[in-house]
Write a structure and sequence with these properties.
The structure is a single chain. By secondary structure, this protein is of the alpha/beta class. The chain has 14 helices and 14 strands. A 7-stranded mixed beta sheet has the order 1-9-8-5-4-2-3, with helices on both faces. Strands 10-12-14-13 form a 4-stranded antiparallel beta sheet. It has a 3-stranded antiparallel beta sheet with strand order 7-6-11, with no helix packed on it. α7 links the parallel β4 and β5. Bound molecules: pyridoxal-5'-phosphate.
Length: 419
């Protein structure tokens, strides 16, 4: 939406436009909100009301014969992705930190991760006292497997971030990880519902971490899910999350034997999910497939409408990538910073809210690996060239297909104008 400075910029553009020889039609403006989600579905609202009325919000606070919403959510999510075990937690970031701890990452250890990701990822690594080692990004916006091979021997663990829903060749990545004895944890904050060659995202590594935060694929404000087939890792994760000696109440848990030794050696670092959030999420999980198809419809319209615009670089999607496009990215490769700034401002003045990952200062949710100064790193020129050109936008389901066409027209128009 337009703020005051956006309105001023637009007024200036309108004047300029009407004075230009070709300026007959008024400039098209988009008025939708890039940050407005859909409402929680009615089934989620009534389930939440029931929890509020009975008051048993804590996951271990059950009436006689009752099964907690949180335990049911875990069971349903495990079923959805085909995992043996699932744990619901307070956030995606907490899920990642818990996975790292469960895998034995300790203070001072190095952990490989993507240079193109968001702050909660290196943040989760730093939260356990470990040190992120950044791996480069390709023009397909996935982890650079050559760079990964070159750095693989520096660490035992890779926190693989499927940033903005782009999934690398998981068969090649897992073969590389095996060859270098790397344990893979997946950050699936943007890939809930997605897959690689039919295998759900989050099911290649030893643990998969998902976020239920408002801008992800299901929305409980905050929240996270962690899945694994490994009984010992999941027993540790459940103890870590703050299950005291009540872990038997979990339904998507490993057999009780898995806790026997773990329960004495695992610190309680509370980060449980509550029944209110679980109640809101369960109906959304049931709708996930439908919602993912709706995101991809919007992506398809936008991507097709930008196909003829050869001044920007669209991201090619591999045929094995079953993506869920809740956002859209393209590249302005080798544009200079002023041209990109002018383009982003031009779009903003017309209501199209784009994020530029190459900005020298981190803005809102964007940042680059150089902004995480607690994790100093050598420059990666090949990745810097790509990061400098990444333009990113959200595609909330409150946008209609016509909205996506409007947005594409404005982007095309502004790209032409800026070049
Ligand atoms: C949102 C996000 C997470 C997890 O975030 P929370 O806000 O802690 O749930 C992790 N990785 C990426 C790339 C994200 O965007």
């Amino acid at each position: 939406m337009l703020d005051a400075s956006g309105k001023d910029a637009l007024a200036a553009r309108m004047t300029e436009h009407s004075q230009a020889p070709s300026g007959d039609a008024p400039l098209e403006i988009f008025t939708g909100s890039f940050t407005q989600q859909e409402a929680v579905p009615p089934a989620g609202i009534s389930a939440a009301m029931a929890v509020l009325q009975h008051g048993r919000l804590h996951r271990y606070n059950e009436a006689e014969g009752e099964i907690a919403e949180t335990a049911l959510l875990e069971e349903e999510f495990a079923g959805l992705v085909g995992a043996e075990y699932c744990l619901a937690v307070a956030s995606g970031g907490y899920a990642m930190a818990t996975a790292l701890r469960a895998c034995g990452v300790e203070h001072g250890d190095k952990v490989l991760t993507n240079a193109f990701t968001l702050a909660p990822v290196p943040g989760a690594i730093a939260s356990v006292g470990a040190v992120p080692v950044f791996v480069g990004v390709t023009e397909g916006l996935v982890i650079d497997l050559d760079d990964l091979a070159a750095k693989a021997d520096q660490a035992d663990v890779l926190m693989l971030s499927h940033m903005r829903g782009h999934i690398c060749d998981m068969d090649a990545l897992m073969a590389l990880a095996k060859a270098h004895n790397l344990t893979v944890i997946e950050d699936c904050a943007h890939t809930m519902g997605a897959d690689w060659a039919g295998v759900p995202s989050g099911r290649h590594g030893v643990m998969g971490c998902y976020s239920c935060q408002t801008y992800k694929h299901v929305n409980s404000g905050e929240g996270g899910l962690l899945v694994s087939d490994d009984p010992e890792l999941m027993a540790r994760a459940i103890m870590l999350s703050g299950s005291y000696m009540i872990y038997a109440k979990h339904r998507a848990r490993p057999p009780l034997e898995a806790f026997e030794d773990v329960k004495y050696h695992t610190p309680n670092i509370s980060g449980r999910m509550d029944n209110l959030r679980a109640a809101i999420l369960r109906p959304q999980l049931a709708d996930l497939g439908t919602q993912c198809a709706r995101w991809n419809e919007r992506y398809g319209v936008l991507d097709a409408a930008l196909a003829g615009c050869n001044r920007l670089t669209r991201i090619e999607r591999p045929k094995d990538e079953g993506f869920v496009a809740s956002s859209y990215q393209f590249l302005l490769l080798d544009w200079d910073a002023d041209a990109i700034r002018g383009f982003v401002a031009g779009c903003a003045a017309r209501g199209v809210d784009l994020k530029w990952f190459g900005a020298p200062e981190p803005v809102a949710f964007t940042s680059t690996y150089q902004s995480w100064r607690y994790a100093p790193t050598d420059d990666m020129p090949a990745s810097d060239r790509i990061l400098h050109g990444i333009i990113d936008m959200r595609l909330p389901l409150t946008f209609s297909l016509e909205d996506c066409e409007t947005i594409a027209r404005i982007i095309r128009d502004e790209v032409v104008r800026a070049t």
